[in-house]
Design a protein that fits this description.
alpha+beta; five-stranded mixed beta sheet; 3 helices; about 35% helix; binds copper (II) ion
């Protein structure tokens, strides 16, 4: 037999205890239904319980909303949470590359204003590990705004996420992200 590790044993004991609690509660309910009770009393007990839980869950809902709203990707929440104002970066997508800076600071809120010079494209930011972190459409005659904060330095990849022609699959380019302060903070436009 395969020996049981401590962690597995703990999980097993937890499940056995939970099962025992559920069983006892179930038996208690079965037993309690044998005694007849006045309906009005049961109803007012039930209402009181419901009101109590309503307050508990209502408060939890409001508290968790207030605490987590700052991590939402809404522009105003990101701006409020940022220590310094957002850096505006214009991005123009075209067949088959992006006109945008080749390097940007990490841990600074960046406001990407994305458009296209020809057809519809996608603007996708991939982490150095190849994970898609954020994306927005690049459309002619529209300026779509994407707020994003690079979590750390590294070579990120910008990829088109919408089929835009024969060169679509090659439409990707690196973006160097550096630690704020390690390079001039002014963002220059480069092809
Ligand atoms: Cu494309």
């Amino acid at each position: 037999m395969v020996p049981i590790e401590g962690r597995q044993l703990a999980i097993l004991l937890l499940w056995i205890s939970l099962s025992a609690i559920v069983t006892v509660a179930f038996l208690w309910v079965v037993r309690s239904t044998r005694r007849p009770r006045d309906f009005d009393a049961v109803q007012s007990d039930g209402y009181r319980l419901r009101r109590g839980w309503g307050w508990v869950y209502g408060s939890l809902l409001i508290i968790s909303f207030a605490v987590t709203i700052w991590t939402m990707p809404y522009a105003w929440a990101q701006q409020a949470a940022a220590k310094s104002p957002a850096i505006t970066v214009e991005v123009v997508a075209h067949q088959f590359s992006f006109t945008m800076p080749s390097s940007l600071p990490a841990r600074r809120l960046i406001k990407f204003v994305v458009t296209s010079a020809d057809v519809n494209h996608g603007f996708g930011i991939y982490s150095p590990q190849g994970v898609l972190l954020a994306q927005v459409q690049a459309m002619p005659d529209y300026h779509n705004v994407l707020y994003f904060t690079f979590p750390g330095p590294g070579t990120y990849i910008i990829r088109c996420l919408e089929y835009c022609g024969e060169g679509h699959s090659a439409m990707q380019q690196p973006l160097k992200v550096y630690v704020s302060g390690s390079q001039a903070t002014s963002v220059s436009k480069e092809a």
